Amino acid sequence: MSLFKDLFKKIIRKRKPDEDTVFVKGKPKPKYYGTVVPYPNFNANSDASILQSAIEKDEVDHDVIITVLVKRSNEQRQKIKVVYEASTGKSLEKALKSALRSDLEDVSLALLMDPPHFDAYLLRKATKGFGTHEHVLVEVLATRSNQEIRELKRVFQEEYQEELEEVIKEETSGDFTTALLALLKAQKDESVEIDNDLARKDAEILFEAGENTKGTDVSVFIDILSKRSGPQLTKTFQHYAAVSDISLPKALDLELKGDIEECLIDIVKCSWNKAAVFAEKLHLAMKGHGTCEDTLIRVMVSRSEVDLKKIIEEYRAMYDVSLQEAILMDTKGHYESVLLGLCGAP
């Protein structure tokens, strides 16, 4: 698999699936890798009152608002929203829009959305306006569970009165559309068990559909890459190296071009090490002149209760600097404080 590692220039480190599970009373249970945890002794009424006071001061108390938002879990924030509106007659979102500005406003409003609504919002934003943000579509659909995809589709239809599949058909084209629609079916195997025979068979099928034929049967790549689990695909990559002189990602690079190439390679990278993929996105968002705030907010908020701890670990291993240090160098003010808070800063 050295060619695979070389292709990504050591950006994507090998995953260790055995580290993702603990056993409680003899039963496997996924480890929690989020940086945001439920606040002990939580009181929605008290928090709503504290936020109201901070917002209505002559000078908005940004520090108090930040502390409440980043130190409460998403579920707790939803309860605060309900109490706030019941006690003030105004939604917390509208209150924060009036009180905050720029990036601080954007990240605060993102934190108030539950995961399905945030994902639906991201896809809406990626498909409306000038141009389509293909990388966001792939990021969301390639990294969410089947249940999360079903939920975001439901919310998307409720919020925007459109079926997400129809929007994808209108805003994208060709094989890229086919790949996105395949991911939207939410049929990925989520088992951690590996079928070695299936991996060997898939590797041979992919070889025949790509390198060993004139042209490329993209539908075969889409079908396998959108349905197999991460551990299963990792085993398939190993078998592919046995039947080909090059790695599967390199084959995709040689055989395909454009959005579909990026889409399938991203699926491959996510199956290999999802946390490292997000670490790379954060690094690129802060690399060079300017900062891509949309990426920072999207990744930090969406992964804060999923795997941000792992992303932080991967970031240091990949770039020899901590994510927190990178944030300190590239952002400032209260917005910086929110991002550091999401990293788990006290």
From TrEMBL:
Family membership noted in the UniProt record: Belongs to the annexin family.
Any one Gene Ontology BP term: cellular response to glucocorticoid stimulus
One cellular-component annotation, GO: nucleus
Transmembrane segments: none
Protein name: Annexin
Sample GO molecular function, one term: calcium-dependent phospholipid binding
Keyword terms of this UniProt record: Annexin, Calcium, Calcium/phospholipid-binding, Repeat
The record's note on its domains: A pair of annexin repeats may form one binding site for calcium and phospholipid.
Organism: Gymnodraco acuticeps (Antarctic dragonfish)
Pfam families linked: Annexin
InterPro entries xref list: Annexin, Annexin_repeat, Annexin_repeat_CS, Annexin_sf
Domain of life: Eukaryota
